[in-house]
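>> received
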Amino acid sequence: MKALLILGLFLLPLAAHGKIYERCELARAMKRLGLDGYRGYSLGHWVCTARYESNFNTGATNYNPGDHSTDYGILQINSRWWCNDGKTPGAKNACRIQCSELLTADITASVNCAKRVVRDPNGMGAWVAWTKHCKGQDVSTWIRGCKL
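>> returned
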């Protein structure tokens, strides 16, 4: 029992920062932050991408052993190009943020950085999950039933 209490106290700070969004809750937050129609991508594209990148989890991380980078947050923004995690060799930090900012319940930093990502020529093609699961699909289903 004592070990569980200690483990719980150790993990509490990690859990307190991230959040798993409900689909419509995320759609509302993304809309409020200006993603609906940004650079021609409907809100459904963004929600679909978040689902397949992180399962709506702001605390998600994914290490990429090939280039020693890590993907961070609800949109799995990569440390090679977009944020600084202090450990990715040759990182560019085009969004000029710490990667840890992408792991909080507040998705503002993730949305602002995503806006920077889609300004590049690849647009949403920067996200493999978007290309595989959302591109060319009826993404309106991702916001259907949400009170927007």
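>> Residues 1-16 have pLDDT under 50 and may be disordered.
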